[in-house]
Amino acid sequence: MTTTRFLAAALFATAPAAPASAQSSPFHDLVAIDRAVTAFTGAGIGEPGGATLPVDRRLRLAACRSPLSLDWQGSRQDTVLVQCPDAGGWRLFVATSGSARQMAAAPPAIARGEAVTISVAGDGFSVAQSGEAMESGAVGAWIRVRTSARATPLRARIERPGLVVVPVD
């Protein structure tokens, strides 16, 4: 009996202690990422210049012990790159409706509620249908459009005034 207690005590004493972050949650708080992007862009989710959507709640990102690193991705500044600088960290791209500077500089090519042509284009084909813009935006911006009042909205890129394109790869 004493041998069993001794072995159990020895095994317990040599087991590695769980890190403090693993005790609370092994995953990073996705709401904290949304807050960081809002602070970085200066605009809330769905607002002009802010993230178009919240971070997908199905993601399971490893908990990050260091402060997140945020920066604009690309020259158009319509995506925020969020990185965990820890060793073996992760990175995440968050779509925005453009930077505040870009929103102020570029006049909208399409206004909310405006009739548009929605073109679905792929390798060797193109199909077009009339629709309605659900958001305003400048050339190159991604907006939501729909083909009818009951249709599910699509995300399309503004090609020129009156024309949006849904690329199919």
From TrEMBL:
Occurrences of domain Flagella basal body P-ring formation protein FlgA SAF (ranges) = 101-165
Keyword list, A-Z: Cell projection, Cilium, Flagellum, Signal
- Which InterPro entries is this protein grouped with? Flagellar_FlgA (IPR039246), SAF_FlgA (IPR017585)
Pfam families attached here? ChapFlgA
Gene3D superfamilies from the entry?
2.30.30.760
The residues forming the signal peptide are 1-22
**Domain of life here?**
Bacteria
Protein name from the UniProt record: Flagella basal body P-ring formation protein FlgA
Q: What is the organism of origin for this protein?
A: Novosphingobium jiangmenense
